[in-house]
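hey
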């Protein structure tokens, strides 16, 4: 097997491809190209995406978000910030946050609770 300069990031663990590369990466210029030779299940895709993001220096907007809850932060030049949260799940989304929820006007003190299929806009600070 000739990987032509690529590194093995993960290998198959059984079947006729046991021990063969399943995921490889190859440096190119200042970046890396990744090749995935299999269909990953949801958990595998989440883990690979997290690994790729971390290796690229990408960090979550809010640490510890539940899967299916999205958060985006917008900042003004004067330092003010707003946290937009969308809950794409069928359960409650608990999001670490502090400020004022602008839809309801309610204070958020450490944790915002966003209902299933709902959103929140929090003016932080």
């Amino acid at each position: 097997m000739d990987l032509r300069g690529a590194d093995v990031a993960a290998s198959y663990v059984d079947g006729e491809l046991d021990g063969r590369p399943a995921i490889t990466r190859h440096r190119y210029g200042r970046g890396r190209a990744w090749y995935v030779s299999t269909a990953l299940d949801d958990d595998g895709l989440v883990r690979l995406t997290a690994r790729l993001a971390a290796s690229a220096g990408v960090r979550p907007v809010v640490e510890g978000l539940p899967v299916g809850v999205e958060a985006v932060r917008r900042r003004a030049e004067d330092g003010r910030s707003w946290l937009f949260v969308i809950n794409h799940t069928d359960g409650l989304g608990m999001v670490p946050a502090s400020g004022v929820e602008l839809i309801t006007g309610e204070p958020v003190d450490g944790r915002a609770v966003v209902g299933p299929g709902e959103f929140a806009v929090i003016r932080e600070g």
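The chain has a mean pLDDT of 94. The first helix runs from residue 42 to 55.
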